[in-house]
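Shipment paperwork, digital attachment
Item: protein structure file
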Amino acid sequence: MPSTTDGTVARPAGNECAQKRRHFRNPHQQKYILENYFNYFTEIEEHFQRKRGSVLLLSTLDWALIEAWREAGVPLEAVLRGIDATFEKYEQRRARSRSRRINGLAYCAQEVMAAVEEMREAATGASTAQHNDHTAAAGFEADRIASHLERCAEDLKAARFEETAQRLLALAAGVRVELPDLEDLERTLATLEEKLFAQLLTMTPEDELRSLRTQAEQELAPYKRRMSAVQIRQIEQQFVHKRLLERYKLPRLSLFYMDQS
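Attachment content:
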């Protein structure tokens, strides 16, 4: 994945995610779920590129769309199915007439939502697969997590977000003493990130924010008929957040972005 983009995160399919988040407390299960999240962005990017037949770097809009899908709990399998269906229909149209090439993930949004509905219907009464703990142990070791938090703290200090930086250093010190419940830690990081975005929105000039929102609207315009109003709002918000992080040279705090910090 290009270094200029954020994130590699994935969600287990269907109701599996919600059930596991409510019930698991085994640390190996935690790592299994987080590692599954970790592949979400990469899997989608690579699958889209394979179907397109060329390496097309995803745009800020594309990454915002993936993140909106992730946060909405759209299963990875549904996204991949939606991409497949979009390209199948494209090939059928191209056989009859010249069709504009698929240059962005937003073309796939409608088929992704259709795949979600199909999976929901098919999942009624289905049982969830069980996974062995030994396949999930690597990737979220205490040292790796603490180093991620410390790197994020350095970046925040450089940008003069001292309070958040100190909070991350305190979390890192605690992780080095004892690995915490990863769900609890992730919730704490999500809260800190929400506060950070609120600060960025407050300190950024109005005309700049207006420009970012206008840019998001312009890039989304060709795809709006393929998306719901909720999706559009989510993507516009993610677009603005990503651009603000780039502007102030700030990292994502979530454990899912450890390799990007």
